[in-house]
Amino acid sequence: MALLEIENLSVNYGGVQAVRGLSLRVEEGEVVTLIGANGAGKTTTLRAVSRMVRPREGRLSFAGRDITRTAPDEVVRLGVAQSPEGRQVLARQSVQDNLELGGYTRKSAADVRADISRMYERFPRLGERRNQLAGTLSGGEQQMLAIARALMSRPRLLLLDEPSLGLAPIIVREIFSIIRELNDDGTTILLVEQNARLAMGQSHRTYVLEAGALTLEGESAAMLNDERVLHAYLGG
Ligand code: ATP
Question: pTM value?
């Protein structure tokens, strides 16, 4: 049984068909990359899984449970967390407050405090800046905060939307090494990235979306060596 199974998903925004008949699965322990041009429907797919948009058609299941109509906070409780595109940290709240917010579905305040301490160990720069307003952090630090905030719900599946967006290459490498560590520690990851080559190099499998529909899928390593993929999606 796959951890996440998307079957025949379609999502519309008014008259715009953002996702058309998409099926994909993410197995426990995998990093899976979703690539495609701007507007291909990648963000919409993640938002359908976290139940921020309503599918017009299709079925979503997580850990064997149908979540097609489950409320967004319940999906978080079941073990799915999203780090959104553009990070969307609360700029006028402290780092610490942002992390507390990420733990909103948790029952025990003591557990939340303990996990915040663990986040400061994993992301020392967030620890040093715990009382700083999130809006004053650098782009890379804000991305770390967005990931740490998502981790506060102790997800089994982490949805990462464009974690490298707007970051300097050295910071991008740092973010990707964090992604690898999280996966080594047992977190399954569905990753949306513009930086296709890098993301494919760090993932087990890749799906390619075009105009809302899947056009290719396969093992990332094999796809990186496939002439068709190189020419069509990776600039030769
Ligand atoms: P990007 O990398 O630019 O975020 P994407 O692959 O994530 O692209 P989506 O953001 O999922 O693509 O958008 C898919 C399609 O749906 C696009 O045509 C987009 O213009 C449209 N769309 C997205 N959000 C909305 C919305 N809130 N209202 C109307 N149309 C939308």
Answer: 0.94
